[in-house]
Design a protein that fits this description.
5-stranded antiparallel sheet, Polyamine Oxidase, Chain A, domain 2, 5 helices
Length: 163
């Protein structure tokens, strides 16, 4: 996921729900290529999250204007009467040298393949487990993969403790 950037858009209230909408957006135009409802319990905080689809060099060129680009896209999707976001937070992993190496930045941005089984095995006598999305056998690199990996490790740790 080194080439990708995630965005959380916070609102005063979940206006999309009030309109009977799910908050799900799929776009080929962008800057966000997918958006999902990200509200907390009882819709607080009211938020959406999404992934930026523009390449990292375009995101870097847009700089501080990127938040405006995101707000403009959400107005196009939800209508001109949609309220303005309270906050827009961008986490651009491509801009973080601890996450993205030069080889990552030269890659095509595709989601990873299923990795070797050694990543799904316990290490150091069961004291260390890897449960990241990239270790999943299903949907590696995706949110579903993260949940699959987390559930796999939680079940294994609980089973080991019960033994």
């Amino acid at each position: 996921m080194a080439l990708h950037a995630k965005v959380v858009i916070q609102y005063a209230r979940p206006f999309w729900r009030e309109r009977g909408l799910s908050g799900r957006i799929a776009s080929r135009v962008g800057p966000l290529v997918e958006v999902h409802d990200h509200c907390g319990a009882r819709a607080e905080p009211a938020a959406l999250f999404g992934f930026l689809g523009w390449p990292h060099h375009v995101r870097a060129q847009r700089g501080a204007r990127l938040a405006g680009d995101i707000a403009a896209q959400l107005r196009r999707c939800f209508g001109d009467d949609a309220p303005a976001p309270v906050a827009i937070t961008v986490e651009d992993w491509a801009a973080d040298p601890w996450v993205a190496a030069p080889a990552d930045l030269a890659g095509d941005g595709a989601h990873p393949e299923v990795r070797p089984s050694v990543l799904r095995q316990p290490h150091l006598d069961g004291r260390v487990w890897f449960a990241a999305a990239e270790t999943a056998e299903r949907s590696p690199g995706l949110i579903e993969g993260a949940m699959v990996a987390g559930e796999r490790v939680a079940a294994a740790v609980l089973a080991a403790r019960a033994a």
